[in-house]
Amino acid sequence: MAGVWVFKKNGVVCLVDNQTEEHSRRKKLLYTPTNEVITSYALLERKLFSLGWERYYEDPDLLQFHKRSCIDLISLPREFSRFRSMHMYDIVLKNRECFRVVDL
């Protein structure tokens, strides 16, 4: 994740995205069996269901998936616009054979 650490007036440090031309490429989640870029939670949900993942409704603020065969849990923000590379890498780690993070 590219950016610059900035001190705010209240003394808190935060990471600010670098909006230069060279850093304008965004990470995308790729479903490798069909080379589809995941563009919505509906599409992601269909792919995860086909891999044996089920919805988990414990937390209403998150979209969560789990597998009965293991203890893994995928937790995503409710809005797709808040879906970041850290969430993508979590999905890739738990489904190495079917997903990849790419720069587009």
TrEMBL record:
InterPro entries: FPF1. It comes from the Eukaryota. One of its GO terms (biological process) is regulation of flower development. Belongs to the FPF1 family. This is Flowering-promoting factor 1-like protein 1. The lineage of its organism: Eukaryota, Viridiplantae, Streptophyta, Embryophyta, Tracheophyta.
